[in-house]
Amino acid sequence: MSTSEFGTDRSAQSIREGVALRRPSALWVSEFAATALLLLAMSVLFVQLSHPEGWLHLRIPSAAGRLLVDAVVSGGVVALLIASPLGRVSGAHMNPAVTVVLWVARLLPGRHVPLYVTAQLAGSVAGTVLGRLALGAPLSHPDVEFALLSPALPAPATFIAVGEGVATAILLISVVRLAHRPDLAKAAPLLVGATLSALIMYVGGSTGGSLNPARQFGPWLLAGSDTGLLPYVIGPLAAAVVVGAGAVRLRTLDRRQQHSR
Predict the structure, then answer these.
(1) Spatial contact of 215 and 39, defined as CB atoms under 8 Å apart
(2) Cα 176 to Cα 242: distance, rounded to the nearest angstrom
């Protein structure tokens, strides 16, 4: 892998400056709205997929088929939100792991991290609440549980954290590389969405396929579930730190190679 694939210090500075020009209030509102819409969409999807009387549940009898629909729709919704006007304001991270990796990789000013993360968590709760108001009792059905994700079979917390971390790391590598490729800006939403869909298909059965602490937070809070939240937070955030630090290291090596020529 070429170090230039993760960009130069100059490209990193231009990305930071682009975010810094946005008003904090606009960034917060954009992230809040995008994450709320994501969770509202997931609430609708899971009622249809998991409720005994859900339209998709009745027509897709297999767990593998439902996981495929979940993966494709989840990736599609994320792609649409990234490409939307909300995405053009804040980037539509909708995921604390994305925010953290961009910060560690020096692509996002540190002062914006609390702003993004609080907006994402608040949006997660708001979107789930909106789902409950719009969909009613079916969203709180035991088979739906506010669209809370969990493994198909019981698994240790450590296993879930590792699985979520590895899958999230792959997603974040694609995010960081795309952040340095302005020529791929138009294709970035589709590429990120497709990567997310593939990863959900790969790990969804074993971990639930969250790859996003905010995706899990609202449903977990409203469901009052015994399902642990911690693995879905630790795994993705650890991946964010590792991938972000790796991107910085690769840029440093690239700079040294250029100076030695």
Answers:
(1) yes
(2) 12
Confidence band of 253 (pLDDT split at 50, 70, 90): confident
Q: How many residues does the chain have?
A: 261
* Cα distances (angstroms) measured from residue 56 to each of 8, 38, 61, 181: 47, 19, 9, 38
Other Cβ atoms less than 10 A from the Cβ of 89: the count is 17
Mean pLDDT of 136-147: 97
Distance between the two ends of the chain, CA-based, in angstroms?
19
Q: Report the 10 Å Cβ neighbour count for 181.
A: 14
pTM: 0.91
Q: What is the pLDDT of residue 1?
A: 36
pLDDT digits over 82-121, tens only? 999 999 999 999 999 999 999 999 999 999 999 999 999 9
Tokens of 176: 């960081």
Contact between 141 and 195 under an 8 Å Cβ cutoff? The reply is no
Report the candidate in 46, 184, 171 with the shortest Cα–Cα distance to residue 101: 171
CA distance 237 to 256: 29
Residue 161, token pair as written in the block: 């954290």
**Mind listing the pLDDT tens digit for each residue in 150-203?**
998 889 999 999 999 999 999 999 999 998 888 888 999 999 999 999 999 999
User: Where is 251: in which H helix or E strand?
Assistant: helix 230-260
What is the C-alpha R_g of the chain?
A: 18
Of the candidates 80, 29, 88, 72, the residue with the CA atom closest to the CA atom of residue 190: 80
